[in-house]
Amino acid sequence: MVVLYVILAIVLSACLTFYRVMKGPSVSDRIVAMHAIGVMFLLVLVLLSYFFARKIFIDVALVYGVFLFVDIVIMAKYLRKPEQGGVRD
Amino acid sequence: MIDFLPILRQIVVYVFFLTGSYFLLSTAVGMIRFPDLYTRLHASAKCLMAGGISILMGCIVLEGIGFVSLKLIILLLFLLITNPIANHVIACLDHSNTMTPNPISKNRS
Amino acid sequence: MKKKLLTFMLTLGLWVVFAGRMNIQVMMFGTIICSILSHLLANSVFRFVHLNGGPKQIVIKITYMFFVFSAFLYDVFLSAVKVSRQAFAWNPSFSPRIVKLKTSDENSSDIGIFAHFLTCTQGALALDFDPLHKNYVIHWIDVDSDAEAETRKALIRKQEHLVAKIFHSEG
After folding, report:
1. What is the ipTM of this complex?
2. Does the residue B45 lie in any domain?
3. Å from B15 to nearest chain A CA?
4. Handedness of CA B31, B35, B38, B43 (dihedral sign)
5. I need a labelling partner for B57 at 20 to 30 A (CA). Which of B76, C30, C78, C135 fits?
6. In a shared domain, residues C85 and C142
7. Structural domain that includes position C87
8. Which chains form contacts with chain A, at 3 or more CB pairs under 8 Å?
9. Sign of the CA dihedral C138, C141, C146, C149?
């Protein structure tokens, strides 16, 4: 029963962080806020495996973490200026 | 005679979950209230990492010894390695975009 | 040969953890895959690590790395408490400052590892690294005077010494 309250607290903090995604002045603000929301939902996925008593969710969380990291690095590589080795013109 | 070990484990799990929820909530509040991009990166680097580590430690204590807790330890090490790298990559992007370009790299391209 | 054996042990351990159960077929399949992987990747994994000591050297180095990791884990919690107190304060008082810090390391993996650990220390964030003049660019959140900045710089130099011992040849 404790797990449910912790899940509700994490979902509340993710909804509060979504304000910065809506109203970020620059692109980097939105990327930072989306990374924070991604890590929070990874923790929700780990806690849901105790709530539903299924062990397969933890494997899903591992693959989700790998894709989150690759996502951030590729976005930062893409948005650079071309003098510093970026793709955007 | 009361058995002390399950009660002790339950108390440790409660403490870990409480500190994790506090740090994640402070991440959300700091992400709204801080005025600059770099200070927001401070909130996203430190409070998020501390919250994730404490919630995963609570899950490890709740689970006990087994293959699932080994997977959780690998997830914790992965989060500890990749979270500073992601924040550093975004900070490096913003810092290099606001600087004047370097003449040597300009000649090379 | 030693590098291939070490890579084989590491990948087999990861395979057993990810498979989730111990079985004769799982172990045979894992042995085939891990032998191919260790034959291919053995030189590129240990390119930056200089292992010229005996097996006793490796044990000492692994325990040293464990202590350094736990010390930085403790430091993450301290700095998270400091930042969260700033977040919940009624009227927060920031004094951010960007500083260049010169380093004396030559090893490139050393510089990378320390720029990773610099994010975990108290109130500091590594922004960039300049490879021409060899200095880090650091952003601090709560430094308001010049005297405090000097003490912070001395503390960072001490931590840099600790990290630089990991990849040294004599330990």
Report:
1. 0.86
2. yes
3. 11
4. negative
5. C30
6. yes
7. 55-164
8. B
9. negative
